[in-house]
TrEMBL record:
This is CABIT domain-containing protein. Residues 1-24, 173-214 are annotated as: Disordered. Residues 104-364 form the CABIT domain. Pfam families: CABIT.
């Protein structure tokens, strides 16, 4: 399960009693909860925003279904400081991660974890030439990439490569791709030694200098295994021999740079699944696109891969790959969960199905140390937080019927089973 990488986590609630998160010490012994005079009336977030000016201190009045709290990274019953509101267009996406179930090698596939990407997020993404991870028609082999003008690609299965000896020749770099990203984890493999005897760059090589005769050299290289989701920029090819356990074979090597700018050779005769990076049609000389460009393209579903930005996704574990599902406009409230010893920022949509009680003695509560600290946290982090990529946390709860009496109507008798299910058991979500 994906989690926001914020270091500190709350201990999991006890599993021997239902809805134990309501009885946790951070709720019962919370100084804000103890000092608050909670309203008897409960409000939907939209109704609360219409009636009370921000900031406000509230608490959730709905009951989670039994067992739901065990899957949440936060306690929804901790008092909540609602600080400011925001309207933004966002991208809804699914996290894409390696799946090892029933397979010899991990392969990238969509997960159930949902991600929201604000349109003003500063991350740069590569769009892939595939709509989903199951788009078999777009899967390429390394031999296909050797024979076709592919600028960059992503591996869906592990791929073996070898570190390049840069002293043998120079490779032209491409300014359209960042060389300062260090988001790829390299697993250095110990085992048999390989060497490649090159006979010069092939005609397909980019940036190779023309010389009167073949250029012979021996390159002893370190073997590196790249996990699924790695990015490779193609620089050309080399024809040579691969030696292994006193045996040799002719092989075409792809000259590439990885996401950190390291120059590598990839033998093209190994199996695997690879997807091309799409060339943008907006006239830009960069392969990467900002979220606002992805929104403008309005193509869903579609696979993208984060490559660089001022704020890398703070999700763990994270493959940096996502499947864009849709785009939507949304109003939300930015706030802080008031834990006894720290404050955690959270974003709650206006249309949330949760209902809340309001602290009627807000002014007195705002003088307490914890709310004062939370206000400082929001003011310091809000500008970054609202534009950051976030995890969409979903859970089921029983809706407080008092907040929805107007939806039933006075003349209506008992609502239908469908209406009861809609009113009294619902899915809520927030962003972390």
């Amino acid at each position: 399960m994906l989690r926001r990488n914020r270091g500190r986590r709350n201990p999991p609630p006890s599993q021997n009693r239902p809805d134990s998160s309501r009885l946790a010490p951070e709720v019962i012994a919370n100084p804000v909860n103890q000092a608050a005079h909670w309203s008897q009336d409960v409000y939907s977030l939209q109704a609360l925003m219409d009636k009370f000016p921000l900031p406000q201190i509230v608490r959730c009045s709905d009951r989670l279904l039994s067992g739901e709290e065990r899957g949440l990274p936060v306690n929804v019953y901790v008092p909540l400081l609602l600080f400011s509101s925001r309207a933004a267009r966002k991208l809804l996406a699914k996290h894409v991660a390696p799946d090892t179930r029933g397979q010899d090698q991990p392969r990238l596939t969509e997960t159930d974890e949902s991600i929201v990407i604000p349109g003003d997020y500063d991350g740069h993404f590569l769009r892939l030439q595939a709509r989903t991870t199951n788009d078999i028609s777009m899967v390429r082999s390394l031999k296909f990439i050797v024979k076709n003008p592919v600028p960059a690609f992503v591996n869906f299965t592990p791929v073996v490569s070898f570190m390049s000896d840069q002293s043998q020749y120079s490779i032209r770099t491409d300014s359209s791709y960042p060389n300062n990203s260090n988001n790829i984890n390299h697993s250095h493999m110990n085992g048999d030694s390989y060497s490649h005897t090159g006979s010069g760059a092939s005609k397909g090589s980019k940036g190779s200098s023309k010389k009167s005769g073949p250029q012979a050299y021996m390159v002893h290289q370190q073997k590196v295994l790249y996990p699924p989701g790695s990015v490779f920029m193609v620089r050309g090819t080399i024809k040579g021999l691969a030696s292994h356990k006193k045996r040799s074979r002719e092989v075409t090597l792809l000259k590439c740079t990885d996401a950190s700018g390291k120059e590598i050779h990839i033998p093209s005769d190994q199996p695997g699944e690879f997807i091309e990076v799409e060339i943008p049609t907006n006239g830009s000389n960069k392969l990467s696109m900002l979220p606002r460009d992805l929104i403008a393209a309005n193509r869903y579903p579609g696979l993208v891969r984060f490559v660089y930005g001022d704020h890398a996704p703070r999700l763990t574990p994270c493959s940096l790959m996502f499947n864009l599902v849709d785009t939507f406009e949304e109003e939300s409230v930015i706030g802080c969960l008031l834990y006894p010893k720290h404050a955690m920022m959270i974003e709650v949509p206006f249309m949330s199905s949760l209902s809340f009680q309001v602290a009627l003695n807000r002014d007195a509560l705002m003088t307490l140390p914890l709310p004062r600290h939370a206000v400082g946290v929001v003011r310091a982090r809000q500008e970054t937080f609202v534009r950051d990529l976030k995890l969409k946390v979903k859970f089921l709860h029983r809706v407080n019927a008092a907040t929805h009496e107007s939806e039933i109507g006075e003349e209506e008798d008992m609502p239908s089973a469908t209406m009861r299910a809609r009113l009294f058991i619902n899915e809520a979500f927030f962003y972390l």
